[in-house]
Amino acid sequence: MTETAPYERLAELAERELALVTAFEPARIGELVALQQTRTTLVASLPARPPATARPALLRAHELQQRVSAALTVLCDQLGRDLHGIDRGRQAARGYGAAPTARSVLDAIG
Fold first, then answer.
1. Is the CB of residue 68 less than 8 Å from the CB of residue 18?
2. How far apart are CA 3 and CA 55, in angstroms?
3. Which helix (H) or strand (E) holds 36?
4. Which segments within 1-110 are labelled E, that is strand?
5. Where are the domains of the chain?
6. Radius of gyration of the chain (CA)
7. What are the pLDDT digits (tens) for 26-83?
8. Is it the case that residue 105 has pLDDT exceeding 80?
9. Exposed, middle or buried by CB within 10 Å (0-12, 13-18, 19+), for 106?
10. Any idea which fold 5-84 has?
């Protein structure tokens, strides 16, 4: 194993994350969580100061993470709009729900 292998692995994880986020499917959210856990474990195992030879892999990982962040922002915005639309639909449906029946004037007077 080379000294740059963990940094190359970090970039590979970022590539996988970008692919999962850009082709988001709710059923695959577990894969994103597992990927994050793998990345966290990998980062914790890295030395405080990377070797100079790791620079290309780190730059690639950084660029990919920026793209992941941008894709997540777009995805969150879209999900927020979708949830807002669902909420508006529910409010509209409640408006058509069982309204109190109007009592006639005779019923009110007795």
1. yes
2. 11
3. helix 29-45
4. none
5. 5-84
6. 26
7. 899 999 999 999 999 999 999 999 999 999 999 999 999 999 999 999 988 988 887 8
8. no
9. exposed
10. Methane Monooxygenase Hydroxylase; Chain G, domain 1 (1.20.58)
